[in-house]
Every structure is written in C-alpha cells, then in structure tokens.
Amino acid sequence: MWFYAAAGSGVSVNVGRTKALPFVDGRRGLGTDDEIRDMLRAEELDSVQFWHRDHSAPDEPRYEIAFNTAGGALAAGWSEWDALNASFPLIKCGREPYLFDCPREDHPPLRYLADCGAGREELAVATQANIKWTEDGVERDAAAELDVLVGDLQQTAETAADVYHQKFYGEAIPDPDCLPDLYEPNGTWEAALSRPLSYTADGSPVRVEDLNLCDGATADESDWYAFPSSLINFQTQARIRKPEGSPEGTDVPICMEIWFYDELLELGYLDPVQIASACGTVREEFSTAQLSVASTTGVRWQYLMVHVFPDPSAPAPTEGVDYILTFSE
Known about the structure:
Structural class: alpha+beta
Helix content: 10-25%
CATH topology of the largest domain: Jelly Rolls
Number of strands: 18
Strand content: 25-35%
Oligomer: single chain
Number of helices: 6
Largest sheet: 5 strands, mixed
Number of domains: 2
Shape: elongated
C-alpha cells in the first residue's frame, strides 16, 4: 500500500520502521514492484520513502511512502487497492502532537483521500457541495465561511499593497489599464522637444499608435509630441482616432492643438506659437482644420508640436483615454 505525502490533508500515517531513499527519476528507478517487496522483506522494513518524478507529473516531484503489506507487522494483509478508511491500523486524523482516532468512514479527510482513482472527483464534489455541520451548538457553513475568509484575505492584501505603494512612491497604485505609454514623460513641450519623433515630411501622414491620456486612473494629464520640419511652405493637420477594439475613454471630451517652434523663437526666449486647435471625443475621431504655414527662411531648424489634453470646459475626467494620433505636413 502506498501514500503520497500531502501537508494539510488532515490525515497522518505511522511509517513504522522506515527507510528514506535518494531521489529517483521515474517510478521504476527503484526496480520492479517485486524487487521493492524483496527489499522491504529482507531489511524487515514497514515502509520505504522517496522523492520521485514520473510520466504522470513530469514537472512535479512527489514524496511517496510505500508500505510492506506482504510481511510488515503494521500493514500486513492490506492492498494498495484498498480504499483508505478509519480501520486502517496506521492512520490517525490531525497532526502531531494533536492526533486522534478518525471518527467515521465519511469523515471529510478520509472521504477526499479514499482512493486515488476518485480522489479528485470526490474533492471537487465536496468543495462544490455546501457542507454544513454543528460545532458547540453552532451551525457552521463551510462554503459561506470560505467566501468570507477569501474576501478578508483579499481585502487585507489590497490594503497592505496600497499602504506600501503610497509609502515608497508617494502615490496610489496606478490602474493597470492606465500605465505610461512609450512616449512619456511628455507632459510639457520642452520634454517633447528633447525627444522628437522621427518623421519624413513627404506629404504622407505619420501615424503614432498606442497612446493614452492617463494619470493613474483618469485622463488628467497633458501629452506633447514634437515633429521636426524642414519645409518653408507647407500644410499641416492633426487627427485623433480611436484604437481598434479599445473602449477606454471613447466618450471623454479632449482637445488637440498644433504649435510651431523654431530657432528664432528660441533665440528670443519665446514660447511656441499655437496655430490650430480642435476638441471632441475619440469616438468621433476629430481633427484640426488643414492650415497653410509659411516659415521664416534662413532658420536652421523648426518643429511642429501637437498637444493633447482633457477638454477644460468639460467635467473632470474619471477614466483614461486611449487614442491614435495622425499628423501630416
């Protein structure tokens, strides 16, 4: 007869005079069943213990205890096909030092572990069944108590995580759907100018994807994008589009502006100049008007910048916004 060690099962077994063997890779690494019986008999052992891994669970080593049912003093006459029950002489319920005689054949641990063929099915049925019993005159409900316990543990874990995140980072844990995108930090035009987007002004629009307006859990932030330009006379337009399959913030009112900045403005310690704007929602896929722009000749560099932000005339946003920016020059 054999057992697998299972901490927390509620059943303990007396191994008697036993021998611990090295780890074996494959159940047959010990030899045939007859050879194992011969070893148990020759060394007058009641049981043998070993870690092993076999084809039934190749990634899960198991600790097996095999008993001498042929000649051992403790388990003589028992077969590995016998279902575990309260009359088996080697078992107690509970764990050392709090062991007691298993009270009945339908004691839950015995019922779950009765035999390897039906153990999983029994456990599944028992778990789904609403097991109730009376203890000290009080009606107990296993399913209800488990739900309460799981809920309490989950709430405790979430509270602890919030406390430690606030302590070490000085802010609430961000919504996983509202994490920084690839182009952040870009909350100012200076930040965008330090990391301009690669762009070829050949008349075809550039499409910048996987963007979001997001500050922890809402769209309460500002995004800037800088595009270098080498043209003197050009037309420009920006459009906000909805990402395919993304419902995030599709109805949150947002605005978009196009700004111009060049070498002369920098030399004069001046800020960028706004040249276009539009407001709408991602669901509407809105755009600015198409503008004709004539820049100053002789400057060595110039940039067009797009600014995306929550509509200040609308109520404060309560969720983030996923969007696609299309820009043409």
